[in-house]
Design goal:
186 residues; mainly alpha; Tetracycline Repressor, domain 2; 9 helices; 74% helix; 0% strand
Length: 186
């Protein structure tokens, strides 16, 4: 509901109706609107952590298409399909609210941390195995990669996709990582 109708599309009576439960059920379990939104944030974080964990397992298996930057690109492209697109819309609604609500920030932090870990893994895989990159470089590359893919996902949410296939996105992600490496060399 949040992803489809925005923050104003979520209320206790609307949740009751959508869930086909007796009137008052949602407010019994979640007394306030804030508690209801906190529950949505917690559930989104659980779904995200489950998805990221599965994707990280796939990324560890070289036999899959989910390794390295190509795998990250495929994962990001899923956000432009359902049910991930509606979930992304809901997440962005909550992220905007979280700027004014520390409880929402805490609920969303687990998925943000997991995504950062995935980005660090991908960036580390990008470097030749015989090299030992500077941890500060890895941090900067992971941060820039996350900022970039968040921007790409936002274009999906806005209905104006910046990229339309994982191969193109993979090249762009590699460019971001390489660009940060160049900056560190200077």
């Amino acid at each position: 509901m949040l992803g489809s109708n925005g923050i104003h599309g979520v209320s206790h009576p609307k949740v009751d109706e959508r869930a086909d439960v007796p009137a008052g059920t949602a407010s019994f379990y979640f007394r306030t609107r804030k508690a209801l939104l906190q529950a949505v944030a917690t559930r989104l974080a659980e779904l995200d952590v489950d998805d990221f964990s599965r994707m990280a397992e796939l990324a560890d298996d070289p036999a899959t298409q989910f390794t390295g930057t190509a795998g990250l690109a495929r994962i990001v492209m899923y956000v432009n399909t359902e049910p991930w697109l509606t979930r992304a819309k809901a997440r962005y609604e909550l992220v905007l609210l979280a700027g004014r609500d520390s409880d929402l920030t805490a609920a969303l932090s687990a998925s943000a941390d997991r995504l950062y870990t995935l980005a660090r893994t991908v960036v580390t895989q990008w470097h030749p195995t015989e090299s030992t990159p500077d941890p500060a470089l890895i941090d900067d590359q992971a941060t820039a990669t996350l900022a970039f893919i968040n921007g790409v996902m936002l274009t999906f949410v806005a209905g104006q996709p910046a990229v339309d296939n994982p191969e193109h996105l993979d090249r762009l992600i590699q460019g971001v990582i390489a660009g940060i490496a160049d900056v560190h060399r200077d």
